[in-house]
Design brief:
By secondary structure, the chain is an alpha+beta fold. The protein has nine helices and 17 strands.
C-alpha cells in the first residue's frame, strides 16, 4: 500500500525482484522507482526490463519513457489515457517482465578512442584554477588525473589507465545534457570512483571524459561540469547517427535519434590513442569520413550475475583498499 499521497502504488520486494514504488510526477508523468537508493546495476537492469516491456507492448497514450539509474519517468497524454489506467498498464508490464536470471536486453558495443591527459582537459583545469578555486585538492597538479590516482590508491597514472581501458562500461541512462551517457563499470574489479568538483567548473570541452562517484560521463557539448576529467574522445552529438534510439517513443525521440550516438543499454569500450591521432579522427568525423565502431550484441544479464558472484570476494577486497586510499585524500 502507498505510504504517502506522493506514492500512487507500491509493489513489495521479492527474492528475485526489488520493491517498486510508482510516484506522482506532474500532470502528465508518473515516476517508477526500484529498490533502495544505492548504486546497484541490478536495479538499472530492472528499469530497462520495464522499458522494453513498454516498447514491445505499447500503451496507447503513453508518449515517452525516460530511464534513470533506478527509476523511469513515464510521460502520457491525459487526453488519451487516465493516470489510473497508466498505473494499471505499467504494473502489468512490470509483473510480466522476466526475472533478472532470464533477462536478455537489446544492446550494442561501441568502441571509442580516448586520448588521456589531453590539452583541452588541462585547459579546463587551468581555467578553473584561475577563475574559481586555486586551492582545490583535485587541481593541485594542474590536472585531475593524479587526484584520481591518489583517491583510488593506484600506484601510477598508467595503472589507472590500464584499469579503465580493460573495463566494459554500461550506459545506464542518458541525460543532464542532450546525448550525455552515464557509464557504470560492468567489471566488479574496477571499483574506480572520485568525488566531484566543489564548486563546479564553468567550462568543459566537448568530447571530454570524466568521472564522478563511480559514473563515467562523456561530454557531448561544451558545458559546465563537475566530474574529474582525464581524457577526450570523439564528437558524440549533432551528427548523422541514423537508426539510433534516444530511448523514447515520440516525435522528439525520433529527432534525437538522428543526432545522438548512444542508446541506453549500450556497452562502451575504449582504445588508447595519442592526442595527435585523436585530433585526426575528430577531423574525419567533421568531414563525414569516420565510421563509428558499433556492433549489435544482446546483453545476457545471467552471465553478468554469474561473473559478479564469482568475483565478489576479490571485488570486496579491492573496494576496501579503495576506501582506505580515499580516506587519505582531501575532498574538494
Amino acid at each position: 500500500m502507498p505510504s504517502s499521497r506522493a506514492i500512487l502504488h507500491a509493489l513489495p520486494g521479492a527474492p528475485a525482484r526489488p520493491a517498486v514504488q510508482l510516484r506522482q510526477a506532474g500532470d502528465h508523468q508518473i515516476l517508477v522507482e526500484y529498490g533502495e537508493m544505492e548504486v546497484d546495476l541490478r536495479l538499472n537492469f530492472r528499469v530497462h526490463a520495464l522499458r522494453h516491456a513498454l516498447i514491445n507492448d505499447p500503451v496507447d497514450g503513453v508518449l515517452e519513457t525516460a530511464p534513470g539509474f533506478r527509476s523511469m519517468m513515464v510521460t502520457f497524454d491525459p487526453g488519451l489515457i487516465t493516470r489510473d489506467r497508466v498505473l494499471e498498464e505499467v504494473i502489468a508490464r512490470e509483473r510480466s517482465a522476466p526475472d533478472l536470471e532470464s533477462l536478455v536486453l537489446p544492446s550494442r558495443t561501441i568502441t571509442l578512442p580516448i586520448a588521456f591527459d589531453d590539452e583541452m582537459t588541462r585547459e579546463a583545469v587551468k581555467r578553473y584554477r584561475i577563475t574559481t578555486r586555486n586551492d582545490a585538492p583535485n587541481v593541485s597538479d594542474g590536472d585531475n588525473i593524479d587526484y584520481i590516482v591518489r583517491y583510488n590508491g593506484f600506484t601510477s597514472r598508467e595503472e589507472f589507465f590500464v584499469r579503465f581501458l580493460a573495463t566494459t562500461w554500461w550506459n545506464a541512462f542518458i541525460g543532464y545534457f542532450p546525448g550525455l551517457p552515464s557509464l557504470f563499470s560492468l567489471d566488479p574489479l574496477t571499483q574506480i570512483s572520485a568525488p566531484k568538483y566543489n564548486p563546479a567548473r564553468m567550462w568543459t570541452a566537448e568530447g571530454a571524459v570524466g568521472i564522478g562517484g563511480p559514473c563515467v560521463v562523456l561530454y557531448p557539448v561544451e558545458s559546465p561540469g563537475s566530474y574529474q576529467l582525464f581524457g577526450r574522445t570523439l564528437p558524440l552529438w549533432n551528427h548523422d547517427f541514423a537508426g539510433n534510439s534516444a530511448g523514447g517513443t515520440g516525435k522528439l525521440a525520433t529527432v534525437a535519434a538522428a543526432s545522438n550516438l548512444f542508446r541506453v543499454g549500450d556497452r562502451v569500450t575504449f582504445t588508447r590513442v595519442s592526442e595527435k591521432e585523436l585530433l585526426n579522427l575528430r577531423l574525419r568525423v567533421f568531414e563525414g569520413t569516420y565510421d563509428y565502431q558499433i556492433e549489435d550484441d544482446d546483453f545476457v544479464v545471467a552471465e553478468y550475475l554469474a561473473e559478479d558472484a564469482r568475483l565478489a570476494p576479490e571485488a570486496a577486497a579491492i573496494a576496501a583498499e579503495r576506501k582506505l586510499a580515499a580516506g587519505r585524500v582531501g575532498v574538494p
